[in-house]
UniProtKB/TrEMBL annotation:
A single GO cellular-component term on record: membrane
InterPro entries the UniProt entry points to: CRAL-TRIO_dom, CRAL-TRIO_dom_sf, CRAL/TRIO_N_dom, CRAL/TRIO_N_dom_sf
Record GO terms (molecular function): phosphatidylinositol bisphosphate binding
Entry protein name: CRAL-TRIO domain-containing protein
One Pfam family here: CRAL_TRIO
Boundaries of every CRAL-TRIO domain copy: 102-267
Protein origin, superkingdom: Eukaryota
Lineage: Eukaryota, Metazoa, Ecdysozoa, Arthropoda, Hexapoda
């Protein structure tokens, strides 16, 4: 395993699986419709709906699992059910993204710094998922590997009760994006990106911040525009190279130095190393069709 850089305060490459929410997050949960006096009833209503309608067949229906779908849709049972159906439809339509996928084979995306996820949270308690598409070499890394890594991070993120409540944030860094990248973005690829990040996963992406975009992005965005509804457009922010604009949304205290922040950058592979040693995470991922390398000691 490569030598690790020293971690700073608030940085921890491990999941926060504590079920008791911090007071600030508990207040957000309450505003989102979470009421301890009603959760059992709503979970059972959700479970009954799954059995009665039969539009999808989830691999489990325990309280813990159903809760993350309800949280993702503000405890509205009908909407949670629709989300679950979209989630399983996406999985069934794209088995190559998870079935028999070994997460450790996706290390190259971390080595090349194409994708990473913050080991700290922003001022709202959200994880930040970073994409640096300019670092992507299509001849070396198939686009499906980017989808695999994104799906994996979202699946793992959805295990955190805190993230279930506050959601996450995406930063799309398009520095170095070229026409070579653009050729690989077809309408079907665009649909898959939106499905993953916005419509099909039981963890909400509350905002997507696009930075360092140039004229190539304008070409690619024409493919996405027809696929975005008004709510999706409201979550999109374009900053170019204006760091002050980004800082209006994410405090620089919670951003890497690259984006005018104070935190060092950490590779995606740190997460893979941790997750491979977590028996709980390995078991959760195996239920979803992933395969794991044997856990190793640090």
């Amino acid at each position: 395993m490569p030598n690790r850089m020293p971690e700073v305060d608030g940085v921890k490459h491990s999941l926060d699986l504590e079920t008791e929410l911090p007071p600030k997050v508990a207040e957000v949960a309450r505003k989102n419709g979470e009421n301890p006096e009603k959760t059992c009833l709503l979970i059972q209503e959700f479970r009954d709906m799954i059995y009665e309608r039969g539009d999808c067949e989830p691999h489990r229906v325990d309280d813990e699992y159903l809760t993350k779908f309800l949280r993702a849709r503000f405890w509205k049972v009908e909407n949670a059910y629709k989300l679950m159906c979209r989630y399983y439809e996406f999985r069934n339509s794209n088995p190559e993204l998870h079935q028999n996928v070994n997460p450790m084979t996706l290390r190259s995306l971390g080595d090349d710094n194409i994708i990473s996820i913050s080991p700290y949270r922003d001022q709202e308690g959200r994880r930040i998922l970073f994409f640096r598409f300019g670092n992507w070499r299509p001849s070396k890394v198939p686009i499906n590997d980017i989808f695999k890594a994104t799906l994996l991070m979202l699946e793992v993120g959805s295990l955190e009760p805190m993230s279930q409540v506050v959601g996450g944030v995406g930063i799309m860094d398009l520095e170095g994006l070229s026409l070579n990248h653009a050729w690989h973005v077809s309408p079907s690829v665009a649909q898959k990106i939106i499905a993953l990040i916005v419509t099909c996963m039981p963890v909400r992406t509350t905002a997507i911040h696009v930075v360092n975009q140039g004229w190539v992005f304008d070409t690619v965005f024409q493919i996405f525009k027809p696929l975005l509804n008004e709510r999706m457009k409201e979550r999109l922010y374009f900053h170019g190279t204006d760091r002050a604009s980004l800082h209006k949304h994410i405090d620089p205290e919670f951003l890497p130095e690259r984006y005018g922040g104070t935190k060092p950058e950490y590779p995606y592979t740190y997460w893979l190393d941790h997750l491979s040693r977590s028996e709980y995470v390995v078991q959760e991922l195996e239920q979803l069709g992933y395969v794991a390398e044997p856990a190793t000691e640090e």
